[in-house]
Amino acid sequence: MAEKKQSIHISGMRQFKAILKKDIVMELRTKEMLTSMGLYALLVLVIYYVALSQAGSGFDVTRIAGGLLWLAIVFTSLLGLNRSLVHEKDQGCLDALLLAPVDRPVIFFGKAMGNLLFLVIVEVLVTPLFMLIFNAGKYAGIATAGWLAIVLLVGSIGIAGVGTLLATMSVNTTGKDFVLAVLFIPVMFPLLLATVAATSAILTQHPDMAVYWKMVGVSGAYDAIMLSAAFALYEFVLGA
Amino acid sequence: MKQIRIALWMAIVGGVMTTVAFLMAFFTSEVQLFGTVTLPKQITTAFPLLSGDAASGFMYGRPWFSQKIFYFHVPFAEASFLVFTVAAYFAIRFLMTRKKEYDTKTRVAMEVALVFVILTLISGDLWTKASWGVWWEWEPRLTTYFIMTLLMVAYFVLRNSLEDEERRAIYSAVFGIIAWIDAPISFFITRLIPSDHPIVFKSGMATSNLVPFIVAQVGMLLIGYAVYVVRLREERMRERLEVIKESLEG
After folding, report:
1. Do the Cβ atoms of A237 and B161 come within 8 Å?
2. In degrees to the nearest 10, what's the CA dihedral of B76, B81, B86, B90?
3. Chain B interface includes A150 (CB < 8 A)
4. B136, B126, B150, B148: which is closest to B196 by C-alpha?
5. Chain A residues with CB-CB distance to B164 below 8 A
6. What are phi and psi of B63, to 5 degrees?
């Protein structure tokens, strides 16, 4: 009985866990997000091969590897964000969440965390593959993997956070994925510029750590500003 | 009706002021020169360009006329930032009050801002071609400003793909605020990151140059405000018409 009484007032952390768990359970059952995102990322890499196929042997891919990697992540996350919120809407889950006594900010963090999780899993799979098939990590040491992980995480937090807000809006429009791309890419632009600069700084022949940390700092600042804005505005979007 | 009359006067005064600024830019502000040319014989010029006699003929300063774009480009740009900020302010007001008039105001202000942005891009492009020799350069100020343009376009794309009126108003207000974050970034970026774009008002300006600049700026803001008022009234009347139509049908 005591347990039942407690459940009337569920703490924010438990609500957050419940929303996250729902996404994970759904993913484990359907495996839809990860397969579609992973396969899509793989296809982007294949297209990269076509784009670079005539570059010749003197071409040093590490100079553009940062850009290519983030491009793949952006396209993949566009696909993933759209799917993640389309599910919520089509199956009426978002309405149910709104009916449940859950704080609105918790919904935002729960959804954003789920999106971040799937994005990170795809990145963990795709980044080594990318490094391998394009030989982009030829100057990289063991430490580079750690630095790469940091910038990937900082970038993904921004993508998942702002992406969740924008995707929640775009699923209710008539254009859906097109509208998401139109909203998402310009908003993401400063972040991408910084993360690409940071990634390129560590992958080139002479890693420049000063540039790397500066650009990671810029990305972190972007995350802080945009996440607070997204967090503050999410309530309005959900209420509409 | 009174507001419309004021707006009309503002448009006329603004038009006169920008025209005056255009003439002043050429005839009263200093003619900036880059380098000299030596001609074999003396020629008549509208501007005091003769800088001395060389051994082989008359030495003339080469007038840097593309610099005149400055008197319009910078006022356009500043007006665009200002009007965009006004639009973001109305978006915040809308989310606070949920009054429909603020949604209309945000949209109309965003339209006016977009017009200024497009004028900035066109005038800037002409200057870039004349001064840097290229039509476009991916340089911090140009890039962030271009992104700002895309964000404004995205605002209208979002609006047009939403059918539910209330939802459209809320979503577009939210996106308007998110989009506005780029405005201060674009405005201050030339002061933060090394950029090819000139920074205005860092070293001060001669009075003869400052006057046409200010006249153009005020004139443009007057025209912008007049357009805003007229468009807003048009929208209000359209909304009223919709209500009347609906009540007649129902």
Report:
1. no
2. 120
3. no
4. B136
5. 172
6. -70, 140
